[in-house]
Amino acid sequence: MFFQKDLETMPRAELEALQLQRLKRIVDYCYNNVPFYHERLNRAGVTSGDKIKTLSDVQYLPYTTKDDIRDNYPFQMLAQPMSKIVRIHASSGTTGKPTVGVYTQRDLDNWSDQVARVAVGGGATADDIIQISFGYGLFTGALGLHYGLEKLGATVIPASSGNTQKQLMMFRDFGVTGLVATPSYALYLSECMKEAGYPRSDYKLRIGLLGSESCTPEMRDQIEHNMQIFVSDNYGMTELGGPGVAGECELRCGLHFAEDHFLPEIIDSDTGEHKAPGEAGELVVTTLTREGMPVLRYRTKDITRLTYEPCACGRTHARMQKVMGRTDDMLIIKGVNVFPTQIESVLVGMEHVGPHYQLVVRKKNFMDTLEVKVELLSAELLEHFGELEALQRNIHDRLKSVLGLETKVTLVEPKTLERFQGKAKRILDLRNEPEQN
Ligand code: ZN
Predict the structure, then answer these.
(1) pLDDT at residue 76, rounded to an integer
(2) Sequence-ordered list of residues with C-beta below 8 angstroms from that of 318, at least 6 positions apart, any chain
(3) What are the Cα distances from residue 280, in Å, to 214, 217, 306, 399, 404?
């Protein structure tokens, strides 16, 4: 099933010709309308789109970083007067000023198309009743999915996050067939569904369109098992307009990039060198159609790989592997690179432990230490000291073989770690705090 079949299955030669034409145009557009890019492109010596002869010439364009966008807060990177802007979003950002995203009417139309494609890829149809349990507001996730699903013709319930019992009540009373949420919130809802004790037949749920944070295959399996639904993953960020940049098809062998709207590249994040298809590195994306706030070569900090091999679903657009981690989420502990997703894949699916965990990094005698707090599924085990110890050792050994690192594993009582309704915050880095014992 497709939302825009002609575009989604366009032969690659045609698609690449379209991308080249749009890349030339966006270079001119940025040069002529955004002072920031005018200066950067002058410095790079690319003063006109005509200088771009092939798609790989994108490497001569300047990068854009999150700091660039912050430094030009709020509206200095706009390519259109405010009278043409119809929507402003912003990402929360943990520190400092948020990252702003602005949209013309055409940007909103394109965005909805992109989201509708992702939704159809994940199995949604016009017959679905879909509950959006993302927090509404400046965040692009909720309204992005909202408009995209409406464009598809699905019935949208703007539930927002929180008030779990009401979420479950709406599932049952409104005959909800699809859920939009972060993976961590979906997991929490799935646990609450089990506890609420209603028979599965009271729920019509069949699909989950989860996004806005990474979801390991193990976590996805757990959500699918608990809720008995089909879960698909999608990708996007405020700087690129929000969700709908890429999404899984029903085969779930990578996330198809909306390549008619975006030009993705993979680079070595240290040297800036281009990586070959299939090689892992940092994802860099140029927007090809955005009018309000186009970006050239945005450094996403997400680590992934791209494949251009045809997909059995019929889509010709490149596939991005699930994001392996972020260059800034990556913990460096005693010189070893650690991604939270690696730890999650060890924990999820192990007997006796739940999917909730927290990583605490400390400095002790000038050495980094990593404590992994793992929540037990049931309090019963707490009374069996021997089993508890064996479980702890088992987790420790598995982590050591996956990470190549000594960790301190602490088992904690059920439901004592914080639950998240938005993006999960699982890392507590105390290395800059005064030394503790
Ligand atoms: Zn596919």
Answers:
(1) 97
(2) 256, 257, 259, 264, 306, 307, 308
(3) 17, 18, 8, 22, 20
- Is residue 370 within a helix (H) or strand (E), and if so which, with residue range? strand 367-376
Q: Which of 327, 324, 343, 323 is nearest to 405 (CA)?
A: 343
Judged by average pLDDT, the poorest of 213-227, 275-289, 336-350 is 336-350
How far, in Å, from the CA of 251 to the mean position of ligand 1?
6
Å from CA of 204 to ligand 1 middle: 26
Q: What does each C-alpha distance from 181 to 16, 32, 233, 437 come to in angstroms?
A: 33, 39, 11, 38
Distance CA 284, CA 264 (A): 6
Of the candidates 418, 421, 424, 413, the one whose C-alpha atom is nearest the C-alpha of residue 375 is 413
How long, in residues, is the chain? 437
Please tell me the predicted confidence (pLDDT) of residue 435: 57
pLDDT bin (cut points 50, 70, 90) of residue 370 is very high
**H helix intervals, 34-182:** 35-44, 66-71, 105-121, 140-152, 164-173
Centroid of ligand 1 to alpha carbon of 223 (angstroms): 22
Residue 51 CA to ligand 1 center (angstroms) comes to 34
Closest residue by Cα to residue 100 from 129, 66, 150, 124? 66
Rounded to whole angstroms, the Cα distance separating 65 from 49 reads: 21
